[in-house]
Amino acid sequence: MKQVLANAVVAGSIYSLVALGFSLIWSVRRFFHFAHGAVYTLGAYSAYVAVKLLHFPLLVGVLTGVFVAAVCGVAMEALVFRNLSRRGATPAVLLLSSLGLLTVVQNCISLVFADHPRVFRAGELAEGVDLFTVRLTQIQIAILIANIALVALTWTFLHRTQLGKVIRAVANDPSLAKVHGINVDRAILFVFAAASAMAAIAGILIGLDTDITPAMGFNALLMGAAAAIIGGFGSVTGAWAGGLLVGIVQHLGVVSLPTEWQDAIVFVLVITFLIFRPQGFFGRSIRTAEI
Amino acid sequence: MAYLGHILVLFAIYATLVVSLDLVSSHTGLISVAHAAFYGLGAYASALIATRYGAPFLVGVLGGVVIATLISFIVSMPSLRLRDDYFVIATFGFQMILFSIFNNWVEVTRGALGIPGIPQPIIFGWNVDSHIEFVALSVFFGAIACLAVGRITSSPFGRVLHAIREDEMFAKALGKNTLYFKVASFAVSAALAAMAGSLYAHYTTYIDPTSFTIMESILILSMVIIGGAGSLWGSLVGALVLVILPEVLRFIDLPSAVAANVRQIIYGSLVVGMMMFRPRGLVGHYGFNR
């Protein structure tokens, strides 16, 4: 039971990293960025290429993955979403374009690397270490640490730095921010870069723990989006708690129901939230949410 | 000839799907990514009715339509409290849940194994077993869908749907019960999709959950966008692109694994390109992007 809970928290940590980026992007652009899942996959595959095919050390691989993902996220914003927004696209249009981009990037990856899983971890399957009566691999511990570190970093950044304040201003009211001389486009670009980098870190860590496939990002994104909705958009703590909750619901549901119903349980929860509490646990009311 | 027949049948089935999704997504403005779920409901319902109870084809079609309509109420009643992109997310969730049911409710749907041995349709003694006859039947079904949607959208009922799309508050202010109109258009759309599903099940004689995934839903929606939202011709053009493109890729001799990806890449790029440069689609009237 404790072991199930530990696994749930590890899975939830990944979801909350995806949810955090997804939610930050929603805050500044007000749409559901589904291609975020493709960015996650791209980060993992870039790191795989650097480490396994070009034989760079792991750290270089991680940096490559983060860099490629950030560039990809920024390019999507600069080339597609910004132009669409300027022409007054509705959130639904941005969502559909993002789905289109997801299809393109995911299929490009599967075109180059084929659909079979790639093993990314170095050497043997890690034995794992015992920690408070549960067994976790080193990578799983790294996932937990990365989760706490990145969530704390994001929160501190948003609330304690000048640029963080600028981003919160943009999230709150882009036109008002513009009137005050804030470069809104640049702030949004920065958010895309940071969110994509976080997605890449999550993708690389999960790749090191299990393996990577072209479809991995879509699954992670579905759970991340669920987490963001349940936790509440535009809230760092919401994305964090939502991710953990989705992980726990997914894994603990299994105690009473067969494994294959995991995803269905999560989506029943999402729909319940959408109907009865669309702002999620921690989000403020949808119209005026801020970070 | 059999090859051409196959393409025509596929075209008619997809045309039915695209036209019915166009009704709810473009005319009423409720963008749904659960269409493949209703398509699947029709396919599974009529496959089960035919294989388990040996009921005739039309009973299966009717069963699929009734079940899809009922389920559409379960989906639309709560989801319709949500607008725009939140509605998309809700239909996303329903698509995932229904797919999960097709895939995991093994006692009924046989899960990933699928349902084999679905009989070819027999309608009042007319045994539909050649390609030509199938083309006739599926074109007839497609024509029903086109007529139904064409008729609905050009009627006063359709004008209310357009009003809801443009400004729901305004429609309400005119005393229209907008919830009723939205639920009704969603139900008609689901029923037509189920009809296409029944036809598909009896055509291929084998179904499994992989035909009814979220990706299939996105694909059908892409066709609405590419062909042109809010236009019957647009939907037909969209369906045509969908059906012809894989065949073109086959002619230029791409290996099938590569062709599948290339096809998806082309669809994805077309959707993004349309959104950016031609929001009305190839021959549409109404742009999502305004």
Describe the secondary structure blueprint for this structure.
The complex is a heterodimer of chains A (291) and B (290).
Chain A: H1 2-29, H2 36-53, H3 58-86, H4 91-113, E1 129-131, E2 134-136, H5 138-160, H6 162-172, H7 174-179, H8 184-209, H9 216-231, H10 236-256, H11 262-276
Antiparallel strand pairs in A: 1-2
Chain B: H1 2-27, H2 35-53, H3 57-79, H4 84-104, H5 106-109, E1 122-123, E2 126-127, H6 131-154, H7 156-166, H8 168-173, H9 178-204, H10 214-227, H11 232-251, H12 256-277
Antiparallel strand pairs in B: 1-2
Helix pairs in contact in B: 1-6, 1-9, 1-10, 1-11, 2-3, 2-4, 2-9, 3-9, 6-7, 6-9, 7-9, 10-11, 10-12, 11-12
Low-confidence runs of at least 5 consecutive residues of chain A: 287-291
Q: What is the beta-strand fraction of chain B?
A: under 5%
Computed over alpha carbons, the radius of gyration of chain B is 18 Å
Identify the biggest protein-protein contact and residues per side.
A-B, 43 and 41 residues
- Helical segment count of chain B: 12
Strands side by side in the biggest sheet of chain B: 1-2
Q: Tally the beta strands of chain A.
A: 2
Output the helix-strand order of chain A. Answer: HHHHEEHHHHHHH
Extended strand count of chain B:
2
Overall 3D shape of chain A = globular
Number of helical segments of chain A? 11
- Biggest β-sheet: strands ordered side by side in the sheet of chain A: 1-2
- Give helix and strand order of chain B, one letter per element, not per position: HHHHHEEHHHHHHH
The overall average pLDDT of chain B, rounded, is 84
Principal-axes shape call of chain B: globular
Structural class of chain B: mainly alpha
Q: Biggest sheet of chain B, in brief?
A: 2 strands, antiparallel
